[in-house]
Amino acid sequence: MKRTLVILAIVVISAGTLLLAGRTQSSAVKACRADARRFAQESLSYEAEYDSLYGATTLAQRPIGELMDRDSRLMECMSTDSGNQPEYKAVLYRSGFIQANRFLKYMTDTQQLRDFAQWEKRQQQVQLAGYRTAEQR
Questions:
Q1: Quick one: 107 exposed, middle or buried, by C-beta within 10 A (0-12, 13-18, 19+)?
Q2: What is the C-alpha separation between 101 and 113, in angstroms, rounded?
Q3: How far apart are CA 56 and CA 49, in angstroms?
Q4: For residues 56 and 14, what is the distance between their CA atoms, to the nearest angstrom?
Q5: Contact 44/95 with Cβ under 8 angstroms?
Q6: Is the pTM value of this prediction over 0.85?
Q7: 50-109 residue pLDDT tens
Q8: Own/partner pairs for 4-12, CB < 8 Å, 24+ apart?
Q9: Sign of dihedral through CA atoms 126, 96, 101, 69?
């Protein structure tokens, strides 16, 4: 949820900046579009090795840190190339799906889901306590 809010804030700020600066077709825009197309092409084969997550495809061999760096670049691209935002959003959505699957596989392989469930319950209790405190004021 925190990541979603950060992405949303970046998108809003970027959109405002773009509106003020005007739209230009530059080498940055071309690079953004090429990066988005490259990721889309790489992720086409992801379904073939969905179960292994770390198979022979280029995408499967990329570390999650590299995927997150690409996400950051694509979020910047949304402001640089606002006319192509739907493509960037689609790529970011797919990237998030891939990253979440890897994390879930890690959690199940290391048998940490129970720890996560306990952590999540504590986080929910803290959040609810904060709401109750705010209502009492």
A1: middle
A2: 14
A3: 8
A4: 36
A5: no
A6: no
A7: 655 666 677 777 888 998 999 999 999 998 898 889 999 988 888 888 888 888 888 888
A8: 7/75, 7/92, 10/75, 10/78, 11/75, 11/78
A9: negative
pLDDT tens across 35-57, in order? 889 888 887 766 655 655 666 67
Instruction: Please classify residue 58 by burial: count the beta carbons closer than 10 Å to its beta carbon, then call 0-12 exposed, 13-18 middle and 19+ buried.
Output: exposed
Backbone dihedral angles phi then psi of residue 56, each to the nearest 5 degrees: -80, -10
Q: Which amino acid is located at 109 in the chain? A: D
Residues 6+ apart with CB under 8 A from 7: 75, 92
Query: 64-80 and 27-44 are packed helices; what angle lies between their axes, rounded to 10 degrees?
Result: 140
Four-CA torsion 68, 53, 49, 100, nearest 10 degrees: -60
Which ranges of 22-112 would DSSP assign to H, the alpha helix? Answer: 27-44, 58-61, 64-80, 85-109
Cα 51 to chain centroid, rounded: 21
